[in-house]
Amino acid sequence: MNSLDWAVLIGYFGVMVAIGVWSHKRVDNVSDFFTAGGKMPWWLSGISHHMSGYSAVMFTGYAGIAYTYGVTSFVTWSFPIALGIAIGSKLFAPRINRLRSRLHVASPLEYLKNRYDLKTQQALAWSGMLLKIVDVGAKWAAIATLLSVFTGISLNQGILITGTITAVYCTIGGLWADALTELGQFVIQFLAGIAMFVAVVMELNDKGIGFLGAWDEPELQGHGEPLVGPYGTVFLLAFLFIKLFEYNGGMLNQAQRYMATSNAHEAARSARLSAVLWLVWPLVLFFPMWMSPLLVESQKADGSDSYGLMTEQLLPHGLLGLVIVGFFSHTMAMCSSDANAIAAVFTRDCAPVVWRRARAWSEGQGLRVARITTVVFLGLSMAAATQVNSPTFGDIITVVIKWVAGLMGPMAIPMMLGLLRPFRRSGPTAALVSWATGLFVFWLVNYPVHWNVDGGVPLQYQVSIPLAVSLVLYVLVGYLKPEDTPERLAIIERINTDDDGPGAAGAAAAVPAQQGGAPGVTVKD
């Protein structure tokens, strides 16, 4: 990097902070901070949903998969995400929006207190926050890894820089700042992605290989196969099922984008836009990664530095700075949205249970706590980032695929399936049994069993077995021990109906407030 690249990077940071300051004027209360007051346009929500779904891990971990295996990086990652979101646009997006518009909640988990009970809500809330600390830590480590390639600064210094800038703008402006910065980040990413795509095509032509002829080169032998290595059919199906839950709200931050739109129809439109973006745009981003074995030689065994090396080799200064800004765009978009979601969960779901005074917070007090929580969460995730390459967690891609995908299912199944009528019989017993057993099975297949099996448990089973066990138990326990009380059925009906209809107000009024939860959870018209 030279002074021009640094100017582009510093200018980007300045714009992000300026957007946060401007967004501060739009935040008057907790609802504005967490759900944009339900006033976000569907197209902004869709772009924000897309941008908050991936980070610099794509340019490190998934670049390594593309370098090693080829197109399977798209087939087993962005394609199932696009398909999962498309399904979710009908199945989950409208219902999640009604959590805000019908039940008047500000956190994706806030409704669980009445859908199940307080114990279930707390189990999912605290475990979800802990998982998010590890997840976001992997994102900080990914961007810091790239930054070290370009600038030579240490991993910890890179984590500190990116985390601090993100904390400033997302703490000041809440979800509005997240969405507006993500819009700007999408534009930057688009320009950077096109620049890299064109640079690679020109380099291939200069080498006499050509756009299509590259696939015949010996370095790319087998790279056109859709399912190779550990990323086979079982992994693809498991990943599709996982991403159906995760990217439609199971990891909380995407749920906020659905909640932020004005109504259920607009939420579905935002999901469809995000699905299209996930299907088309990653093809442009992945093509240079697929060609990378022809252009660079990775210095790392997993190939995670290949994209960074390629940008340094192919792009002139200025454009190099733009691509680096694109890396930051991904990571800061996801991490800021995660921070906002976790602040919502803590402020609305956890603090009122562990601290009596929190139940009487005014709007101003709740907003201050939300901002403090955002900073604390980002600090904890930055601390976790320094441990990503430790023996406990493993490398970046291991954290993202194994830990996040493997643990997401047991946490997301009670939340997401609890929205749907077919699972109305499953109550708090089913939710807690499926959650606890899923977590235990994840530990079992990743540690005691993994260590005692020659070659280890295959990756596809490490991520799919915990989810499968949780799903089966959630349905089975609900069938054997149904807990579909009138109050819980009233919650489900309010989420699933297109309009209030006759008697809806009476059904809503039948749902009582429970003690110890956040204010404003009771269903009302």
Automatic annotation (TrEMBL):
<feature type="transmembrane region" description="Helical">
    <location>
        <begin position="129"/>
        <end position="153"/>
    </location>
</feature>
<dbReference type="Pfam" id="PF00474">
    <property type="entry name" value="SSF"/>
</dbReference>
<feature type="transmembrane region" description="Helical">
    <location>
        <begin position="314"/>
        <end position="333"/>
    </location>
</feature>
<feature type="transmembrane region" description="Helical">
    <location>
        <begin position="159"/>
        <end position="176"/>
    </location>
</feature>
<feature type="transmembrane region" description="Helical">
    <location>
        <begin position="6"/>
        <end position="22"/>
    </location>
</feature>
<feature type="transmembrane region" description="Helical">
    <location>
        <begin position="432"/>
        <end position="449"/>
    </location>
</feature>
<keyword id="KW-1133">Transmembrane helix</keyword>
<keyword id="KW-0915">Sodium</keyword>
<feature type="transmembrane region" description="Helical">
    <location>
        <begin position="369"/>
        <end position="388"/>
    </location>
</feature>
<keyword id="KW-1003">Cell membrane</keyword>
<dbReference type="GO" id="GO:0006814">
    <property type="term" value="P:sodium ion transport"/>
</dbReference>
<dbReference type="InterPro" id="IPR038377">
    <property type="entry name" value="Na/Glc_symporter_sf"/>
</dbReference>
<feature type="transmembrane region" description="Helical">
    <location>
        <begin position="400"/>
        <end position="420"/>
    </location>
</feature>
<protein>
    <submittedName>
        <fullName>Sodium-coupled permease</fullName>
    </submittedName>
</protein>
<keyword id="KW-0406">Ion transport</keyword>
<feature type="transmembrane region" description="Helical">
    <location>
        <begin position="275"/>
        <end position="294"/>
    </location>
</feature>
<feature type="transmembrane region" description="Helical">
    <location>
        <begin position="228"/>
        <end position="245"/>
    </location>
</feature>
<feature type="transmembrane region" description="Helical">
    <location>
        <begin position="461"/>
        <end position="480"/>
    </location>
</feature>
<comment type="similarity">
    <text>Belongs to the sodium:solute symporter (SSF) (TC 2.A.21) family.</text>
</comment>
<feature type="transmembrane region" description="Helical">
    <location>
        <begin position="183"/>
        <end position="202"/>
    </location>
</feature>
<dbReference type="InterPro" id="IPR051163">
    <property type="entry name" value="Sodium:Solute_Symporter_SSF"/>
</dbReference>
<dbReference type="InterPro" id="IPR001734">
    <property type="entry name" value="Na/solute_symporter"/>
</dbReference>
<keyword id="KW-0472">Membrane</keyword>
<feature type="transmembrane region" description="Helical">
    <location>
        <begin position="74"/>
        <end position="93"/>
    </location>
</feature>
<dbReference type="GO" id="GO:0005886">
    <property type="term" value="C:plasma membrane"/>
</dbReference>
<feature type="region of interest" description="Disordered">
    <location>
        <begin position="501"/>
        <end position="525"/>
    </location>
</feature>
<keyword id="KW-0739">Sodium transport</keyword>
<feature type="compositionally biased region" description="Low complexity">
    <location>
        <begin position="505"/>
        <end position="516"/>
    </location>
</feature>
<keyword id="KW-0813">Transport</keyword>
<dbReference type="GO" id="GO:0015293">
    <property type="term" value="F:symporter activity"/>
</dbReference>
<keyword id="KW-0812">Transmembrane</keyword>
